[in-house]
Design brief:
alpha+beta, minor pseudopilin epsh fold, four-stranded antiparallel beta sheet, 3 helices, elongated, transmembrane, transmembrane helix, cell membrane, cell inner membrane, T2SS_protein-GspH
Length: 194
């Protein structure tokens, strides 16, 4: 084969710009079809999904507390929980995934049960101002300051708690996150409070 024959063979073995663009259009249309036909159930619709997501967020917060030498807090209110970081004597809400405010589905109830944490009971002076528990810290009179229920320390230990994700549908499972040790978290399927 001569030199021009080799060049012609090389040119015919590749893709043209039009072929690549056509492939991109076909893949885009196929992707849109798949996205539009996915069931409407979102990841955290079930108690199982919501409990798994919380465990992953908790592990991430503990890793960040240790790596960055920060104290983190989680505030539970109604059907949502919010992550905070203690910075300059204030709680600062985290807005970067995965540690963002998370609302559970309307198909799931979220119940928080505090554990025993006696460290603050031994303090006589200024105990209400530790980690922003002083209600005067609000930026306005109408706004209530964050009051995290769970603190995650730099050592990765945390304030003990239990958290229940209860499915409204009796055919779906409910889950409890047991962090009463303050050191490790266990997630288990349950039928009722134990």
């Amino acid at each position: 084969m001569n030199h021009t024959g080799r060049i012609q063979a090389q040119r015919t073995s590749g893709f043209t710009l039009i072929e690549v663009m056509l492939l991109i259009v076909i893949l885009s249309v196929a992707s849109m079809y798949i996205i539009l036909t996915i069931p409407t159930r979102v990841l955290s619709d079930s108690a199982q999904d919501a409990s798994e997501k919380f465990v992953l967020q908790m592990h991430h917060a503990r890793e960040q507390a240790m790596l960055r030498n920060h104290v983190y807090g989680i505030e539970f209110k109604d059907d949502k929980y919010t992550f905070y970081r203690w910075h300059n004597e204030n709680w600062v809400e985290l807005v970067q995934p995965p540690l963002v405010e998370t609302r559970v589905s309307e198909h799931v109830d979220l119940d928080f049960e505090p554990g025993d944490f006696r460290i603050l009971d031994n303090m006589t002076e200024g105990r209400d101002t530790v980690f922003g528990r002083d209600v005067r810290r609000a930026s306005s009179d109408d706004e209530e300051p964050p009051r995290p229920n769970v603190l995650i320390f730099e050592s990765t230990e945390f304030v003990p708690f239990r958290l229940r994700f209860t499915a409204h549908d009796p055919n779906e499972r409910s889950f409890v996150i047991d962090g009463r040790s303050g050191i490790q978290i266990e997630r288990e399927e349950v039928e009722g409070w134990q």
